[in-house]
Design a protein that fits this description.
Layout: H1 3-30, E1 36-40, H2 47-63, E2 67-71, H3 78-85, E3 93-98, H4 100-107, E4 118-128, E5 130-133, H5 142-151, E6 157-160, H6 166-178, E7 183-186, H7 190-198, E8 204-205, H8 209-217, E9 222-226, E10 252-260, H9 265-279, H10 282-290, E11 294-295, H11 301-321
Parallel strand pairs: 1-2, 1-3, 6-7, 6-8
Antiparallel strand pairs: 3-10, 4-10, 4-11, 5-9
Amino acid sequence: MTSGQRLGAAFATLLAFFGGFGAAGAYAQAYPAKPIRLIVGFPPGGGSDALARLLGGGLTEKLGQQVLVDNKAGANTIVATQWVQSQPADGYTLLFVSASFAINPSLYKLTYDIEKDFTPAAIVAIVPLLLVVPNEVPVKSVKDLIALAKSQPGKLTYASFGTGSAAHLAGEMLLHMTGSNMIHVPYKGSAPAIADVMGNRVTMMLPGIGSAINLAKDGKLRALAVSTAKRASGAPDIPTIAESGVPGFDIGTWESVQAPAGTPADVIARLNTAIREVVADKALRAKMINLGFEPDAMKSPAEAAQFVRSERKKMGGIVRERNIKVE
């Protein structure tokens, strides 16, 4: 081979090398080039499903590709999470999941690791829990409720929408921080639990605010406080539990979009930007607040990952401290 031929071959190699970079860049810029599936770990009709569909509609407009919501309910969102983990890490199959994502590692032997096997695209919303009691229970504040519980240790009851749920952990956290003792009564979902609160068959509950605030406004049960550090945008007159005599109390649930680990960083960045833009829309924010969600898509992927780690630590600490177990 002559020197000229060697030079030509080297030049061709360089063109191929940089051409590959160009193709990769074109792939990232082209994302998404086909419909995206957003997998929800709950049945249709609930709050998580409603928010996923709101977000999916906004992302469809923003990304120029259909975002299809697919419900895969079961095992406290484990079924959906396992399924998404098994899918290609290309940004076309995403998990829409709540705080159960960070709670489950402390309760179950899982086939996945939430930090190693997933990359968060965004935290979409925070969901305050609403501390409610039946109208017949003679309390008007958190301090009244704690005083009543201490006067009858182990006799009062509190409901949750399932063992190991955010509502269960919030109840245990409240009892721990106030030195109180009540009996946990788990239900299969919020609706039957709230019905028994209204029927005065349980003493208190901490459901997601969206499922109980209108009932409280209609006088069908009494709302005492919200569980998060900040008051809820949809009910600014209701104090927080921390304000009501339990300083430092701050717990809730949340909704996030997760992708399988290995999804290209530029795809994650594209999703994060699109989700932020969708959640920043005033009309959509108003709909979210009306459903009981606090819009919160201002976190970068790295900040979202840190949030999930901190939630895993907090929730795991409650599980261990209170010796919570699932059958």
